[in-house]
Known about the structure:
GO terms for molecular function: hydrolase activity. The protein is an alpha/beta fold and 311 residues long. The protein has helices spanning 56-64, 96-112, 124-134, 158-171, 190-194, 198-210, 221-235, 260-269, 291-308, and strands at 16-21, 27-33, 40-45, 67-72, 117-122, 142-146, 247-252, 273-278. The protein has a single domain (5-308), classed as 3-Layer(aba) Sandwich (Rossmann fold). The two termini are 24 Å apart.
Amino acid sequence: xxxxxxxxxxxxxxxxxxxxxxADGWPIRRFDWPxxxxxxxxxxxxxxxxxxxxxxxxFAHWHDAGWSVSAFDWRGQGGSGRLSADxxxxxxDDFAPWIADLADFWRGWAAEHDxxxxxxxxxxxxxxxxxxxxxxVIAADAAVLVAPMLGLRSPVGARVGGWLAALMRRxxxxxxAAWKGHERPGARDRRLLLTADxxxxxxxxxWYQQSPELKLGPPxxxxxxxAFAATDRLRRDPALARMMVPTPxxxxxxxxxxxxxxxxxxxxxxxxxxxxxxxxxxxxxxxxEADPVRDRALAAIDxxxxxxxxx
Length: 311
């Protein structure tokens, strides 16, 4: 589906990019694209190291269908204030401030919009969205989890990987980079971890050329240790069985960054979830994949929202 390809490298003329301040005053960069006659509103939450510009093509798809679309960069990345003295490192001592930011933003954002309110989370954003829903600090009419980080891939397994990350966190500066690259150590071709689509992959680099300050590199040891620990706590949380928000979950079986099997196991615990799986044709960034994968992902989301939410 290339209908909205022109949006990949240009902000919509009728969209707004502004600064929202969290409860503690932290500057958060936000994006808002109101529909002329909205059927409802979507809040899209990106993954670790992401910026909302990467998803403008998908935003255009939903906006054309009548949705007002909003997003914000998590604190510590993109155009929001950084959390490490080295601005290239994606650091977090605790994920709780991100949940608090989402809850605080949601309260104001939901009050601004009529109609169904949908939250979509990709990767780390998927974990944070589900955690917020389980904790009942946001109240969406529907949620969509796209390749959610509900377990991390590790060459030594999640248990040993989490133990090692916790050890390295204590062994030195917890805000130091866990490795030199971006997503995963030892990967020869970063693109293959994310998408088979060369052009969509290149869009990210284009945006960073325009605004180098948006780019983020590897995670810190503290972030990595917390990611293992936080996803493990969520997988064992009995409150999953009480999270009633309708939730389609889109998973790439060969995802090399997050554990799709762990995500599917969580999907089986949710009372109103629909798991849509992709095979060897799909990598981590399903909404930035080649057209056959991306079209199927968008169609699954559209169908679910059409069926479950009144137009």
